[in-house]
Write a structure and sequence with these properties.
Blueprint lengths: L1 H6 L10 E9 L9 E7 L2 E7 L1 E6 L5 E7 L2 E9 L1 E2 L1 H10 L2 H9 L3 E2 L3 E5 L3 E5 H14 L1
Parallel strand pairs: 1-9, 6-10
Antiparallel strand pairs: 1-4, 2-3, 2-5, 5-6, 7-8
Helix pairs in contact: 2-3
Length: about 140
């Protein structure tokens, strides 16, 4: 079974190594700031972007660190927590763990929050599990 899994060419059950993130920058009054220069990085690479924008980053088990700068405004910092995607557990069940090991090493078994909102002058931590919980609460109020 191990030989079949390794020779099948299938590196991942869960998907792409790339995640497309929405990057926005705000001030402490929740007002949008444009043309801030941002650097996003994890152990798989470093990406540069001007906010607001969409940024493709490589997934990783490591957190994504974001730093945004704009002249005349205090820098903003954000740590986006990397969380295991649901597909990682499917890999363990259906692939006997081989797929999960491959996805862990490639980063494909992890996700960051989809919406990265940096607040200038602050250092914040953003966790997808908290973002998902807040989204469920707002949906149940409708």
């Amino acid at each position: 079974m191990l030989l079949t899994a390794l020779s099948s060419g299938r590196a991942s059950i869960t998907g792409s190594e790339i995640q497309n993130l929405s990057l926005t920058v705000k001030n402490d009054k929740n007002e949008a700031i444009t043309e801030a220069k941002c650097t996003l990085k994890n152990d798989k690479g470093t990406w540069q972007s001007s906010a607001p924008s969409f940024v493709d980053v490589r997934r990783s088990s490591e957190d994504l660190l974001v730093e945004c700068k704009k002249d005349g405004i205090a820098d903003g910092f954000l740590r986006a927590i990397s969380r295991a995607a649901g597909g990682m557990f499917g890999n363990i069940l259906f692939g006997g763990g081989i797929g999960a090991i491959i996805d862990h090493n490639k980063g494909t078994g992890y996700n960051y929050p989809d919406n990265i909102a940096v607040v200038m002058g602050q250092s914040i931590t953003l966790d997808r599990s908290t973002q998902d919980e807040e989204s469920r609460k707002s949906e149940s109020k409708k």
